UniProtKB/TrEMBL annotation:
This is RNA polymerase sigma factor. It comes from Pedobacter chitinilyticus. Coiled coil: none annotated. The keyword Transcription applies. Residues 25-92 form the RNA polymerase sigma-70 region domain. Belongs to the sigma-70 factor family. ECF subfamily. Gene3D superfamilies: 1.10.1740.10, Winged helix-like DNA-binding domain superfamily/Winged helix DNA-binding domain (1.10.10.10). GO terms for biological process: DNA-templated transcription initiation.
Amino acid sequence: MREKQGLNELISYCKQGNLRYQELLYKQFYGYALGICIRYLNNRDDALEAANDSFIKVFKSIGSFNEENDFKPWFRKILVNTSLDHKRKSMRFSEALELTDTIPQSIHTSVIDKLSAQDILALMKHLNELQRTVFNLYEIDGYSHKEISSMLNIPESSSRTYLTRAKQALQQLLATHSIYTR
C-alpha cells in the first residue's frame, strides 16, 4: 500500500511537469520498459529507442492517468504500442497471408521448468518477426486474436496460425534445448 502511495505521489509531481520526478519515474521503470520493448524488437538499439519514445508519450499524457488505476498496465500498453509502431517502420504487416491448417502440439513442462526467462527469450529470438510478435501479444501481454488482428492488420485466423507456428517452433527448439538441460 505504501509503495502505491509513493508511486501516486511521484505521478502527481510528474503531472505538474516536475523534471526531477519525471527522471525518478524514468529510473524506476526503465528496466521494466526495456524488458517489454526488447521482446518485440530485434535489437537493443531499437528497444532503447522505443522505451525512450514510450517515456515521452507517458510524460505527454500522464495528465490523463487516473491514480486509482495501476500504473504498470497503463504503461505496458504504451510500451507495446510504441514497440509495434517501431516494428511497423521496419517491417510491413499489410501483406500478411491468411494462414490455416496447422496442427497444435504439446510442450513438455519438465523442459520448460528447467529454463530461465533468459533462456526463453533467447529461444524466442529464433522465431520469425511475426510469430514472435503474435506470441508476445497473445501469450505474454494477454491480447485477444481480434485485438492482434487489428493491431497488426492481419486476419484473426492468421493471428491464430502465427501463434500455433510460434509454439511449434518453440517446441522444436525446446526439444533441441532439452538435450543440453538433462
